Amino acid sequence: GDIVVSDLRLPDGNGIDLLRWMRKEGRMQPFVIMTDYAEVHTAVESMKLGSLDYIPKQLVEDKLVPLLRTILKERHTGRSRMPLFSRDGSAFQAIMKRIRLVAPTDMSVLIFGENGTGKEHIAHLLHDKGKRAGKPFVAVDCGSLTKELAPSAFFGHVRGAFTGADSAKKGYFHEAEGGTLFLDEVGNLAPETQQMLLRAIQERRYRPVGDKSDRSFNVRIIAATNEDLEKAVNEKRFRQDLLYRLHDFEITVPPLRDCQEDVMPLAEFFREIANREQECDVIGFDGEARKTLLTHAWPGNVRELRQKIMGAVLQAQT
């Protein structure tokens, strides 16, 4: 068979035991576990054993078929789906605890962390483990949005709304309907854009540029930043009222230098991905390479580690 879908509770055992047995027997088929929200901690165990995902039973209808399609498509194209849980270190497991706590809710979440720590990855986890899984996840790079472009980008515009608007355009809020809108580096938004967003979030309505009527929306908002937004508020660069709206719950992602125990597992993880993507067969790291990996400060965090490993695997082949 191509894929195994198993309930966590089975008449004569459980899905974890089945997965453990399969891996021991060298059977590496993709394995998806179905579970109740109350059993999420057990499902996370299954991730460590190599299951690809777990699906809360409440979401089976929405999420199972798209997930199976993705797995089959990636098997067909030879690309393997990246497991979402690849870090067992205590600091990251503490984050996973917070993710499991808040994912099933509609609370807005603000993710703090340096560049390259994987804030968007956390946002995806929050989306995938909540009730909006299977619905759109729309990521917005707030740093690239000028105050002139922002209204049309977020809310869309009607045809003829301004010079050059030859056709109507849907905005991010429309694209994310029913799902999650992820505001990456939200601290970079211009003051005018902050005010515009605040009004929309408060009223749960927006108006496309050039339109005569408002539209309501249903999205969950997750934001991320690498700066101290309280400081930005004190310096009048960020609106206090918008910060309150975005900050029902916070998750702080530690830099890689504070997660020493994750460095080698992540390096191995990226080595396997690099081998697959570049069709290489680098089998591991020698003592010198391990020492370098463990003593480097990783200012660019997980992103830098990934790039270094990708480059090293390629070079090892030449």
UniProtKB/TrEMBL annotation:
<keyword id="KW-0547">Nucleotide-binding</keyword>
<dbReference type="InterPro" id="IPR002078">
    <property type="entry name" value="Sigma_54_int"/>
</dbReference>
<dbReference type="InterPro" id="IPR003593">
    <property type="entry name" value="AAA+_ATPase"/>
</dbReference>
<dbReference type="GO" id="GO:0000160">
    <property type="term" value="P:phosphorelay signal transduction system"/>
</dbReference>
<dbReference type="InterPro" id="IPR025943">
    <property type="entry name" value="Sigma_54_int_dom_ATP-bd_2"/>
</dbReference>
<feature type="domain" description="Response regulatory">
    <location>
        <begin position="1"/>
        <end position="72"/>
    </location>
</feature>
<dbReference type="InterPro" id="IPR058031">
    <property type="entry name" value="AAA_lid_NorR"/>
</dbReference>
<feature type="modified residue" description="4-aspartylphosphate">
    <location>
        <position position="7"/>
    </location>
</feature>
<feature type="domain" description="Sigma-54 factor interaction">
    <location>
        <begin position="85"/>
        <end position="314"/>
    </location>
</feature>
<dbReference type="GO" id="GO:0006355">
    <property type="term" value="P:regulation of DNA-templated transcription"/>
</dbReference>
<dbReference type="InterPro" id="IPR011006">
    <property type="entry name" value="CheY-like_superfamily"/>
</dbReference>
<dbReference type="Pfam" id="PF25601">
    <property type="entry name" value="AAA_lid_14"/>
</dbReference>
<dbReference type="InterPro" id="IPR001789">
    <property type="entry name" value="Sig_transdc_resp-reg_receiver"/>
</dbReference>
<dbReference type="InterPro" id="IPR027417">
    <property type="entry name" value="P-loop_NTPase"/>
</dbReference>
<dbReference type="GO" id="GO:0005524">
    <property type="term" value="F:ATP binding"/>
</dbReference>
<dbReference type="Pfam" id="PF00158">
    <property type="entry name" value="Sigma54_activat"/>
</dbReference>
<keyword id="KW-0067">ATP-binding</keyword>
<dbReference type="Pfam" id="PF00072">
    <property type="entry name" value="Response_reg"/>
</dbReference>
<keyword id="KW-0597">Phosphoprotein</keyword>
<protein>
    <submittedName>
        <fullName>Sigma-54-dependent Fis family transcriptional regulator</fullName>
    </submittedName>
</protein>
